[in-house]
Amino acid sequence: MCLLFHCRDAHEDYPFILLANRDEFYERPTRAADFWADTPDVLGGRDLRRGGTWLGMTRTGRWAALTNYREPSNAVFDRSRGDIVRDYLAGGESAGAFAEHLTLVAGEFDGFNLLFGDRRQSLWLSNRGDGIRTLETGIYGLSNHLLETPWPKVTHGKRTLAAQLKQVPVTDRLFEPLTNRTVYDSDLPDTGVDHEVERMLSSAFIASPRYGTRSSTLITVDRDGRVYFEERSYDNRTSGLKEPDEYCSKIFRFRLNC
After folding, report:
1. pLDDT by residue (tens digit) across 159-181?
2. How many CB atoms lie within 10 A of CB 257?
3. CB atoms < 10 A from the CB of 236, how many?
4. How wide is the angle at C-alpha 145 spanned by C-alphas 217 and 189, nearest 5°?
5. Residue whose C-alpha is closest to residue 46's, from 70, 67, 68, 22
6. Whether 131 contacts 100, CB under 8 Å
7. What is the C-alpha to C-alpha distance for residues 232 and 219, in angstroms, rounded to an integer?
8. What is the Cα 47 distance to its own chain's centre?
9. Is the dihedral of CA 137, 66, 171, 120 positive or negative?
10. pLDDT over 80 at 141, yes or no
11. CA atoms lying within 13 Å on the CB side of residue 103
12. Distance between CA 142 and CA 64 in Å, rounded?
């Protein structure tokens, strides 16, 4: 997962909105979003190589999404970052208790950002950041650095989303911050990769021969606890060069049990 936008109480009718792009190598085996057979309350995709997930939500309103922290590293970690999201969604700890526990074992994982919470609160935690942050009312953006780091696709996406929230939310328009193909030439970060790779990764929607945006997800929860969860998957193409208007969609609607 490489790009997240989260709205906490930023819209009158939808106190919770989460937008997410999962960027990954096309060869990595993946299962599309669904309720899990081994944990039926959990809805999300599944990484079939390590068993974890990048994003999900439960019928009780627990939710989590993860991005990698991009940095030069040759370290090898036994634990997969996808385990973090899976363990929170499938577990019974409160968000605060889970965060406190995670800080104790965060060094066992490669660099990560975790946005997570429940119907009442949103938290952010990174093993490259400083402590646990509770998110107040607002619109937040996160890519492969720390929360609110002003990478071009983060700042542009937040502006686009803020404009959409001034209207009645329409699903296709809410996906716009995730489908922007603009490649930026200025204000690029220096994360240790080649400059041309940095340019390629600068767009919200990434397309290259081997790596790119494999799915986009929108989750909204209204004030009555009604959930709309849509995952748009671009893995139906045989070529790696995908377009954001060519996708297979899975939609789930349910009411929170809390």
Report:
1. 999 999 988 777 889 999 999 99
2. 10
3. 9
4. 110
5. 22
6. no
7. 12
8. 14
9. negative
10. yes
11. 13
12. 13
Please check whether residue 234 is in contact with residue 242, taking contact to mean a CB–CB distance below 8 angstroms. Answer: yes
Q: Please give the structure tokens belonging to residue 62.
A: 């627990």
What pLDDT is attached to residue 1?
64
CA dihedral (79, 111, 84, 37) in degrees, to 10, reads -80
Q: What is the number of other CB atoms lying within 10 angstroms of the CB of residue 66?
A: 28
Give which of 172, 248, 231, 234 is closest to 35, Cα–Cα: 231
Question: How many helices, marked H, and strands, marked E, lie in the chain?
Answer: 6, 13
Supply 224's token pair.
């009555």
Task: Say if CB 175 and CB 197 are below 8 A apart.
Answer: no
pTM of the model: 0.95
Q: Which of left, alpha, beta for 121 (phi over 0: left; psi -120 to 50: alpha)?
A: beta
Instruction: Map tokens 């397309």 to a residue.
Output: 207
pLDDT tens, position by position, 231-247? 999 976 555 566 788 89
Structure tokens at 63: 């939710």
Beta-sheet strands, E only, within the chain: 3-8, 16-25, 30-35, 42-47, 55-58, 63-68, 112-117, 122-126, 132-134, 138-142, 211-221, 226-233, 248-255
Query: What structural domains does the chain harbor?
Result: 3-255 (3.60.60.10)
How far is 3 from 230, CA to CA, in rounded Å?
16
Indicate the helix (H) or strand (E) that contains 103. Answer: helix 95-105
